[in-house]
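Run log, item B.
One chain of 301 residues. Sequence copied directly from the ordering sheet:
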Amino acid sequence: MKKIALLWLGLLFFGIVFFISCKQSNSQKDKESILKGTITILVDETVKPLVEDQIAVFESTYKAKIILEAKSEKELMQSLLKDTSRVVVMSRPLNPDELKFFEKAKIKPKTTKFATDAIALISNKKESDTLIAVKDIVAFLKGDLETKIEGLVFDNPNSSTVRYFTALAGISELPKKGVYSFKSNEEVIKFVAENEGMIGVIGVNWLFQPTANINDYLTNINVLDVEGLNKNSYFAPSQNNLAEGTYPLARDLFIINCQGYSGLGMGFSSFLAGEIGQRIVLKSGLLPANMPGRKILIKTN
C-alpha cells in the first residue's frame, strides 16, 4: 500500500509539473503574435549588419522585441536543434537530416529566401594584384602551396564560408598549413589590413555596413575581383554582378521559421520578404529576392 501511495504521489507530481509547463507555454504563445512579443533569432555572423538593420526597422514599426544571437553556422544549428530559438537566418536551407528532426517533432519548417549574398575576398592595400581565381583557391585548399596565395583567413572554423569553400574544393576539412581562423568578420578585416600576403574571406555585407570598430581598417584593404571556375573574366562582388549572376561566389540567404505556430517568427519572415524588408536589403548592397517597385510621380503644369 505504501509503494502504491508513493507511486500515485509521483504521478501526481509529474502531472502537475506537466500542466504548469504547458500552461506557461500556452501563456507565452498568447503573449506573442506575428507582430508583437519577444523572440530570439539566430543569425549567421556573416550577415549580422543586414539583420540588425532589419530588426531596428521592425521594432520601430511594431510592438516587438527581437534579440539577435550571431553565431557560426554550426553553432546556429546546434542552438536550433536544442530549441534555444526556433528562428534562424542562414545561407542554406535545412538538409534532409535536419528536416527529419523537425518532422518527428511534428513541426513543418517554413523557409523563405529573402536575399542573395556575396562572399568577398580581401587583401592588404599594399598588394598590387587585385585579381584572384577560384581555381587557385581550390588548389590551395587541396594542399598545393605553389599558388600565389600565401594564406587564407576565415572568420570561424565552423562558419558558413568555411563550409562553402570546403564543398567547393571537395575536401572534408581545411588544411592545417596556411589557413587562419578567428571569431568574427571584424577580426578578419583587421588581420588582413595589418598583414600583407593574406586573403581574407568575409560576408560582403561587412564592407557595405561596417561597424565603428573596423571602419578605419577598410582604407587598408582591397576588395578582389574574382574569376570563376572555367571562366576567363573577373567580377567584383557588386549588386549589379549579383543580379546578372556573374559573380562566382554568390549564395542565397534564408530565414527559417520552426516555431510551429503563428508567432513573431512568421511576422518577421514576412517583413524580410516584403516591400520594406526588400528595400533594406537593396540599401545594404545585397540583392533582394524580390526587387522592390519604384513609384514615379509625374507632375503636369
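Observations after the first pass:
- The first helix runs from residue 2 to 31.
- Residues 74 and 158 are 6 Å apart (CA to CA).
Flagged for discussion on Thursday.
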